[in-house]
Amino acid sequence: MPQQRRKVAFSGKKKKDQLLQKRNTKGPPKYLRSTQESYEDSDAPETTAPKKLMEQPFNRGGGGARNKNLNRYNLQFTQESKKELELMKEEGFKPLNVLTATEREIDAAYFEGFDFPVRPPWKLDSSKELLDRNENRYFKEYVDELFKKKQGAESKEISLFELNLETWRQLWRVLEFSDVLLIIVDVRFASLMFPPSLYDYIINTLKKHAIVVFNKVDLVAPEAVVAWRHYFNERYPELPVVLFASYSARSHKGTQRARGRMSHQRSMEGVYNIYRECLRYVQNDVDLTAWEQKIREDMRAEEMNMLENDNEAMKTQVEGELKISSSIDTTPHQHVKYYNGVLTIGCIGYPNVGKSSLINALKGRKVVSVSRTPGHTKHFQTIFLTQQVRLCDCPGLVFPSSTPKSLQVFLGSFPISQLQVPYRSLKLLAEHINLPQLFRLNLPEDYDEWSAVAISDAWAYKRGFLTAKAARPDRYRAANHLLRMCLAGQQQLVLQFYPPGYDKQRETWLHHPDLEAVIKYQQVDVEEPDSETNEDTSSICTDTAGSDEEDDEDSSNDETNADDDECVDQPLRSRNVFTLLEDD
User: Fold this and answer.
1) Considering the chain, what is the average pLDDT of its residues?
2) Is beta strand 76-78 parallel, antiparallel or unpaired with respect to 50-52?
3) How far is the C-alpha of 472 from the C-alpha of 452, rounded, in Å?
C-alpha cells in the first residue's frame, strides 16, 4: 500500500487568518454595512443590487452542467433596502384614508417619460458574438440611464421592471416575427398595462397591425368595460378592442359543468371576434377559411376539453403543434409579411394577464400550462392553429414606468411570495374597498381605528391564522391571503380602476348603446339576497377550481387559491342546533 501523507497540524489561529484573507480577496458581503456609516443617519442614496426571484438550485435533479442555464429566464427586479422596509412596516399602523370615486380614475400618466428597450441596430452579416455584445452593452446603458433619472431631483420613482435581457430578447423576436400583435391587458387595470411607447413602436416604427384584448371582463361592471373601450378608441384610434373572459362565471349557481359550458361559450365568442379583426387586416392575402371552420367546430363543443384525467392523450395530441426549446433563438429576424402564406399572430402583455388562457381558447384545448404565478411562461412558444395560422406566445414583461410598487402587486407584476412587507399593498386595497364591511370584520381590542395591521389581525382571527407557540394572529399570512384573493378576483374582492371622467359621465355609460352587448357577453344574473341581514354569499363561498386560470403542477405557489375549501363569510359554528341560541 502506498504510504499515506503525514498530517500537518493546523491551528485555529491559522484557520482564522485563512478565512480573513479569503474575505478580503472576495470583498465585503452585500448584506453587511460598513462600520463607518449607518443607513439611519446617512442621506446618501443607497444602492440596490438586482435580485433574482424564484431562483432554482443548480443541483436540482443532479444535472450539473445540464442545469447551468436553469435560472436564465427568471424574473429579475431590484431589491428593496432595509430603510424602505422599515418605512413600509410603519405605514401599516397608519389610519386608512378612504378614496373617492374620482381618485380611482387613472390614465397613462405613470408611463410619461418612459420608453422600453428595443433591439439595437444590426446587420445581416454580423456574427452572433457581435450581436450579443452590442445588445448587452445597449441594455446596460439603458438600465444605467434609468437609474440616473431616479437619482435626479425632479425625477419620478421608477417602478419594478424586467431586468433580464433574455426576456426582452424574446419580446424583440416576437415583435419582429409577427404579422398581427395581440396586446392582452387586464380590464381592471387597463391603462396601467398598456404602455403608449409600445403602441407607438408597433404602429409607427414597425408599421404593423395590433389588437387590444380586454381580458377578465367578467370581473368588472359592464359600464366600466364600455368606458374603458371608449377611452382606448379615442386615445389609440388604430387599435380595435376585443373582449375576452377566461374565468368561469362566479355569480351563477349550478354545477361546475354548467359554469364550464358558459365560460367556454364566452371564450369562443372572444376568439371569433379576434378572427374577424385578423380577417379585416389580412383580407385575401392569407386563406383563413380553415381557421374559421375550426372556430365553428369548437363553438359546437359543449366545453373545452381540458384533458385533466388523460395527460398522456394530451401529450400525443400536442406533439408537433407546440414548439418549446430550452435553447431559444432570439437572434434578429428579417420580417417577411405572410411568409409562406402563413399568418403569424404574436401575444404580448404583462405577467398574469391571461395570455396562456387566451392561447388555450384559440387552440380549442389546453396546449400551454396556466398559473397565477407571475413569470410562469418563460420561453418563446410557437403553436400552430391551422396550417396557415400560428401563434407566438411571449413571456410576460413588466415595462418601465412610475407605477408604485404597492400597486404592481395587484397587477400581478410582482410575485406575492417575494413580498417582504405586505402592509403597503394592503393599505392601498383597504382604501379602495371597505374590507371590514365586505368580510364583516370586528376591530381588535388593541386598535382604536382601522389600519392595514388591524385588518390583518382581524382577518387572522376570523380565519384562525395563529402562530404556533404564542397563538398570536399571524399578520403576514393574513395579509398575503387577502392580496392573493384580490389578485385572483375571488370572493367578491375585486380592485379596479376607471378611465378619466368616469364618475362625471356615469349616467352616460349606464345608458350607452354598447352596454347591452357587454352584459350579454358577461352573462351576469343579478340575484337578490335572501334577507337584509343574511346576504346571498353564493359567489363568496364558491370554489373557483373550475376556472380556466387553474394551476397545474406548480399549484403550491402562493399565488394560487389558498384555503378555498373554507367559506369566508360564514363563522365557525357547531353542528348542534341548540348552540345557535347562545350565538343569538
Assistant:
1) 75
2) antiparallel
3) 17
